[in-house]
Amino acid sequence: MQDVTAQIVACIPNLRRYARGLTGNREAADDLVQDTLERAWSRIALWQRRGDLRAWLFSILHNLFIDRVRSKRASPEEPMGEEEISAPVRATQTDMLEVRDLDRALLRLPPDQREVLLLVAVEQMTYEQVGAALGVPLGTVMSRLSRARERLRAILEGRETVSRLKVVK
């Protein structure tokens, strides 16, 4: 049990980072992580030891986030406060502006694309782990990631994305 406790505690910084990317708000992210940990502890018997504990925790966090989005569908997301942005290597003014612009661009992505992009790019999860955490097939993970990267690139370049999907009757 101590091994499981240590694994869960080791995942907390990653859960917080992912929650911040999803919510764009430190307080909301901390609440989301706390609720995730409470749910994980109360349902630890449901975790199958053969599965990836990290993916299971991210799955719980993701499901809680979706539940909150559905319950607050009418309220818009708030951008992160600039005081929260920090550059890990060097802190120059241009770095801070780039991080702020990236944060705002991430918040403009649809939630399903943003989730996949954050899990792959920031949390460095494999596509299989992301699929398990979000409950979607591998192909869906890959297509959402591709669309997220393209849309993020377009937003950062200041151009609108054109949907290549065609409506089939």
Describe the structure.
The chain has 169 residues and is an all-alpha fold. The chain is 67% helix and 0% strand. It is built from seven helices and no strands. The longest helix has 22 residues, at 2-23. It is globular, with a radius of gyration of 17 Å. The N and C termini lie far apart (54 Å). 27% of the residues are buried. The model has no long low-confidence stretch (mean pLDDT 81).
Structural descriptors:
169 residues; globular; 0% strand; 67% helix; mainly alpha
Which class do the helix and strand fractions yield?
A: mainly alpha
Number of helices: 7
Question: What distance separates the N and C termini?
Answer: 54 Å
Total strand segments = 0
Specify Rg, calculated over alpha carbons. Answer: 17 Å
Enumerate the spans where pLDDT stays under 50 for 5 or more consecutive residues: none
Shape: globular
